[in-house]
Design the sequence.
């Protein structure tokens, strides 16, 4: 079965041309739209229909069906998020319907735009880009669920799995166990 064509990842198409986003509306700023599951592309279509500037970075994902057949799809790089560039009215427009969980205010506008530009540059380069887990390798984390709840340690990656390492610093040795991102939080 052929893959469906990709949805545009931004609107307007020249959003990343020049020094500022293509939408230079008076009072425009970045907002982070937290979408309900699997609603990112629908939100992007709605925003494009209403001529509201947005960015939805997307990547190819390959997998297999239970029967072993290869599948290939285009998915959001940041699952659950669409980035809107507009004013307060655009934010309210995005809230219409039942596709959003919340709208997150972005306090560091310049830093946020710089980060999105970097992502856009990476994706535009044609390189294979894949999502990085919410808890980066090397982070100090606390386990929030399960039999190890409350333990703190470090995340490391070996192969395709993330592992939690509890270290006995005095000995310079430790023990590791597989973990999932939803089981940990960044330790403060």
Sequence:
């Amino acid at each position: 079965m052929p893959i469906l064509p990709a949805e545009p990842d931004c609107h307007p198409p020249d959003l990343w041309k020049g020094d500022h986003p293509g939408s230079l509306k008076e009072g425009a700023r970045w907002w982070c739209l937290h979408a309900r599951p699997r609603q990112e592309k629908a939100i992007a279509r709605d925003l494009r229909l209403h001529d509201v500037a947005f960015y939805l970075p997307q990547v190819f994902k390959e997998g297999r069906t239970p029967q072993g057949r290869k599948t290939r799809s285009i998915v959001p790089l940041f699952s659950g998020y669409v980035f809107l560039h507009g004013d307060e009215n655009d934010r309210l427009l995005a809230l219409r319907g039942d596709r959003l969980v919340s709208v997150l205010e972005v306090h560091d506008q310049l830093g946020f735009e710089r980060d999105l530009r970097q992502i856009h540059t990476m994706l535009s380069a044609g390189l294979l880009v894949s999502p990085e887990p919410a808890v980066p390798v090397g982070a100090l984390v606390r386990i929030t669920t399960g039999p190890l709840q409350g333990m703190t340690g470090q995340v490391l990656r070996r192969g395709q799995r993330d592992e939690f390492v509890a270290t006995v610093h005095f000995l310079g040795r430790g023990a590791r166990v597989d973990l999932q991102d939803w089981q940990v939080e960044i330790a403060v």
Notes: The domain at 10-124 is CATH 3.30.70 (Alpha-Beta Plaits). The chain has a mean pLDDT of 83.
